Amino acid sequence: MVLLPQSPTHPTLYDTDFWAWTQTQVKLLQDQQWEHLDLPNLIEEIESLGRQQRQELRNRLSVLIGHLLKWHFQPEQRTRSWVSTIRIQRIDTLDLLDDNPSHKPYLAQIIPRVYVMGLELAIKETDLPPAHFPENCPYALEQILDSKFFSGEPSELLANFER
């Protein structure tokens, strides 16, 4: 299979059918047909995968922090759904870190950034004023990831989830 260079009159398989392009690239790699690989797009996609993993980690942590803030600062509104969200985000975050251990040093670097996103979530979902929340993340990274940590006053809702 010869892949034509991209041009307005000759779009590549990458442009017209991404799934088919991926399968072609896999086959070329398996067959060690290096000269037929679409290296520019292959490089771009591999770089993109790395960025996606970091984005996924930031998203998970921001939702987790947002729900920890809601839990802490609006205790009268607590629900089992909040407990589930906190637990699932922790599990998924830890799974991401298990799959990508080189991201662990990145965590301390992104906490201030994901705190801002989590804070926005908490403000939007609680209707509490921004001044009601701490300016900086009140939780240590170890607390954020600790399956037993729930900030604020104890809650009966946690009894159903303890093992």
Structure description:
With 163 residues, the chain is an all-alpha fold. The chain has 2 domains: 1-37, no CATH class; 51-161, no CATH class. Helix content is 61%, strand content 0%. It contains 6 helices and no strands. Helix 3 packs antiparallel against helix 4.
How are the secondary structure elements laid out?
Layout: H1 13-16, H2 18-30, H3 39-73, H4 80-99, H5 104-126, H6 141-145
Helix pairs in contact: 3-4, 3-5
Protein name: DUF29 domain-containing protein
Pfam families: DUF29
| Low-pLDDT ranges | none
Report the mean per-residue pLDDT as an integer.
91
What pattern of helices and strands is seen along the backbone? HHHHHH
Strand tally, please? 0
Shape: elongated
The number of domains is: 2
Q: What distance separates the N and C termini? A: 56 Å
Q: Biggest sheet, open or closed, and with what strands and sense?
A: none
Rounded to the nearest angstrom, the radius of gyration is 22 Å
Give the fraction of residues assigned to helices.
55-70%
Q: From the helix content, strand content and strand pairing, which structural class follows?
A: mainly alpha
User: Strand portion, in percent?
Assistant: under 5%
Number of helices: 6
